[in-house]
Amino acid sequence: MIKDKGFKVSTTGRKYLYEHCLKVNAEGKTLLDIGCNTGNLIKSFPDDLNCTYTGVDVQEEFIQELKELYPSQNFIHLNAYHPSYNSEGNKNINFTHIGAKYDIIFAHNIFTHCSYEYILKSITELKTLLNDGGQLIFNLYSKEKITNDFKNIFNITDTIQDFNNYMYYINGETFIYDTVLDGNTEGQLSFFDIDWIKSENSDWTLRDSYQNKDHTFTIS
């Protein structure tokens, strides 16, 4: 089962997520951290950063721990369905239920574990939570990511076919190419042809690329 549960950024340095993934100055801003996990982003904040932070996660135990660690900040348990992280979640709950507006929405390694259709639906919901001039920041894995990084990590010996749009790797054993997925896929990793993503989504701005493998987009 491939999951990010419990992942911490300490191996890459305390400031990694804020400085290298969020990569915008959040001073004086309202910031929504989608999939806050165990506090990876807030733990990477500079000590003198003054922003209004809200962390959201589908895993209630993470939210409870963070409320105790950061009592002055805002944390929300959103029991919404997510195909990898919360396959038993409520499909009638979505991101619009958060019910506030933000200057910055950050969704790191959330859309790397779901279908393309789920990404489009989620982004439509999240855009309604942006203040005027606000921005949504998220990342996707390219096809180079599976061949250069994960193939060795997961000891993949199968031949990975070329694909036009996207590919899913399910439970560490199954490759699915350019297919709409139904049902729960808890061990899902998603990889995209980035040129296709750009051609399909003209309002997404490709902001950054890490060695042509992990791509960060913004939407304003």
Question: What does this molecule look like?
Answer:
By secondary structure, the protein is of the alpha/beta class. It folds into two domains: 10-141 and 200-219, Rossmann fold, CATH 3.40.50.150; 143-191, no CATH class. It is 21% helix and 27% strand. The chain is built from five helices and ten strands. It has helices spanning 16-22, 60-69, 116-127, 143-153, 194-200; strands at 30-34, 52-57, 74-77, 102-107, 130-141, 166-170, 174-177, 188-192, 205-210, 214-219. The strands form two sheets. It has a seven-stranded mixed sheet, with helices on both faces. The chain has a three-stranded antiparallel sheet with strand order 7-6-8. β9 (205-210) and β10 form a beta hairpin. The protein is globular and about 50 Å long. The N and C termini lie far apart (35 Å).
SSE blueprint:
Blueprint: H1 16-22, E1 30-34, E2 52-57, H2 60-69, E3 74-77, E4 102-107, H3 116-127, E5 130-141, H4 143-153, E6 166-170, E7 174-177, E8 188-192, H5 194-200, E9 205-210, E10 214-219
Parallel strand pairs: 1-2, 1-4, 2-3, 4-5
Antiparallel strand pairs: 5-10, 6-7, 6-8, 9-10
CATH topology of the largest domain: Rossmann fold
CATH class of the largest domain: Alpha Beta
What is the annotated CATH architecture of the largest domain?
3-Layer(aba) Sandwich
**Strand percent estimate:** 25-35%
End-to-end distance: 35 Å
The CATH H-level superfamily of the largest domain is Vaccinia Virus protein VP39
Low-pLDDT runs of 5+ residues are 1-13
CA radius of gyration: 17 Å
Order of helices and strands: HEEHEEHEHEEEHEE
Number of strands: 10
